[in-house]
C-alpha cells in the first residue's frame, strides 16, 4: 500500500501484510500451523528474504488479496475453521493497515493428529 497525504508518503510492505495475516491465522481456533511449500523454501534460500511461511499476498494501492496454506487440527470441522480463519485474517489486516481485503483464499494442506492440539478446540467434531 502506498498513500500520499499532506505530510508525506505512507507505504506498507507485502512482508508487513504477510506477518499480520500469519499471526491472525495462528490465533484462529482449529489451526495447528502454517504450511510452507517447497518453492517457498527455495525462494527463501535463493533470495535471502524472510518469507512468511504459508502466506502469500498481493498488495495494491488500496486493496490486498491473501492466500494461506494451513494445517488444521484433527477432529475440527474444516469448513468452520476456514470460515473463521478468513474472517480473522480479513479483520486483522483491514484494521491494522486500512487496506480493503478483497479475498482470503485458504488451502488446507494437512491435518495435525497430536491429541493436545484438539482438546480445547471449539470446532472439534464430537
TrEMBL record:
Pfam families for the chain: Asp23
Signal sequence residues: none
Family indicated by similarity: Belongs to the asp23 family.
UniProt function note: May play a key role in alkaline pH tolerance.
Protein name, entry field: Alkaline shock protein 23
Organism whose genome encodes this protein: Paenibacillus planticolens
Amino acid at each position: 500500500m502506498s498513500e500520499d497525504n499532506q505530510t508525506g508518503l505512507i507505504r506498507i510492505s507485502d512482508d508487513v501484510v504477510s506477518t499480520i495475516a500469519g499471526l491472525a491465522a495462528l490465533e484462529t481456533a482449529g489451526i495447528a500451523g502454517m504450511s510452507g511449500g517447497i518453492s517457498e523454501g527455495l525462494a527463501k534460500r535463493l533470495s535471502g528474504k524472510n518469507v512468511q511461511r504459508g502466506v502469500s499476498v498481493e498488495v495494491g494501492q488500496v486493496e490486498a488479496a491473501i492466500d494461506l496454506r494451513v494445517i488444521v487440527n484433527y477432529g475440527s470441522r474444516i469448513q468452520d475453521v476456514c470460515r473463521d480463519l478468513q474472517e480473522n485474517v480479513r479483520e486483522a489486516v483491514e484494521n491494522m493497515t486500512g487496506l480493503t481485503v478483497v479475498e482470503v483464499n485458504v488451502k488446507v494442506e494437512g491435518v495435525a493428529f497430536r491429541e493436545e492440539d484438539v482438546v480445547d478446540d471449539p470446532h472439534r467434531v464430537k
